[in-house]
Each structure stands twice: as structure tokens, then as C-alpha cells.
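in:
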């Protein structure tokens, strides 16, 4: 089975398994907290960008929609 066979597909729920290095650099505190809060919780995989990063979409506790781009190595399908 190849990586593409196991790679989560857009529209699936995935888990952000750990904080990618540098992801929070320069972001406002509110955004940093919102992103940290979703580690290990199901979020929507919206799509993959041109360089293969996963676009994750989630709504924080205040109802604000967030989009983050992460390497596929730090996501896995939510079971």
C-alpha cells in the first residue's frame, strides 16, 4: 500500500497530532491558543495546496473559523 492510498482525503476529519515547528510564530495570542486547542481533536481537511500541505479548517471556542496549512506528517485520519 502506498502513501497515497492511506493519505487522508479532502472532506475527511483528521487529527493534528503535534504542533509543527514555527506554525505559531508571529500569530496573535488568540490564534495561537485556538490552534493549540485543536491538537488531538477532529478537524476538517479542506484540501491540499500546490506543495502538498494539508489545509485544515476548524472553528474555535469563540466561533471564529481558522485555516492552517501543515505538513501531512503531522496529521492522521480521525477514527
Amino acid at each position: 500500500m502506498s502513501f497515497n492510498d492511506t493519505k487522508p482525503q479532502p472532506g475527511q476529519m483528521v487529527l493534528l497530532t503535534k504542533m509543527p515547528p514555527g506554525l505559531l510564530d508571529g500569530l496573535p495570542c488568540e490564534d495561537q491558543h485556538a490552534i493549540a486547542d485543536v491538537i488531538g481533536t477532529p478537524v476538517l481537511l479542506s484540501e491540499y495546496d500546490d506543495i502538498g500541505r494539508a489545509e485544515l479548517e476548524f472553528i474555535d471556542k469563540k466561533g471564529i473559523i481558522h485555516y492552517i496549512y501543515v505538513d501531512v506528517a503531522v496529521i492522521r485520519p480521525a477514527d
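note: The chain has a mean pLDDT of 93.
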